[in-house]
Design a protein that fits this description.
Blueprint: H1 6-18, H2 26-54, H3 58-79, H4 89-109, H5 112-125, H6 129-139, H7 142-162
Helix pairs in contact: 4-5, 5-7
């Protein structure tokens, strides 16, 4: 069939669509719509994948995202670390020894990040942190010791946030042998 004008083609096409003789099932229409939607989605994926791969900063941005996610995860894990009750010296000593052992075992396995995390916890609860840091500086490799030094301020801030403010002692007791300041009553002031 040949059409002389464009209008004849349009009229014939519209009459074909409206003709009751040809019935198109709903499943065929939905299958065609699903196919078109699938093709659009695949095209969308291909377009943005090419755009992503052609970006010169893509790899560096991806590394930065992964590094930030890892830092957030480590910070969250450090914040969740269960420190002992600092009034119970035995619990503090157990925690200290446990953290040192876990830090050493992680470092032996090659997991420096977790090892440093546990050693930093041990340094924070240690009674003599400068001596412990001197020992760790002599025994740890320089990059690991630098990681430890960088971790300590962050851990100290997290610990200070979780500790309730210290209440002054009501009973005068000095284990250091120095002067004891006791509370004054109003009648003591002249």
């Amino acid at each position: 069939m040949t059409y002389n004008t464009r209008n004849e083609f349009c009229v014939c096409f519209i009459s074909f669509l409206l003709c009751p003789q040809t019935e198109v099932s709903k499943t065929a229409i939905s299958a065609a719509a699903a196919g078109i939607a699938g093709l659009c989605f695949v095209g969308y994926c291909i377009y943005f994948d090419r755009k992503r791969r052609s970006d010169p900063h893509f790899k560096s941005n991806l590394r930065k995202k992964r590094l930030l996610a890892k830092e957030h995860e480590l910070a969250a894990r450090a914040a969740k670390s269960a420190f002992p009750d600092f009034t119970d010296q035995q619990a503090v000593q157990r925690f200290f020894l446990q953290e040192v052992q876990m830090g050493e075992s992680y470092l032996e396995q090659g997991d420096a990040v977790r090892g440093v995390e546990h050693l930093a916890n041990a340094v924070v609860v240690c009674g003599q942190p400068t001596e412990l840091l001197n020992v760790l500086q002599r025994t740890l490799p320089d990059p690991v010791f630098e990681m430890l030094i960088k971790k300590l301020p962050e851990l100290g801030k997290n610990l200070m946030r979780r500790q309730p403010p210290q209440q002054p002692a009501k009973q005068p007791s000095s284990s250091f042998g120095g002067p004891v300041i006791s509370e004054l009553d109003v009648s003591d002031v002249e």
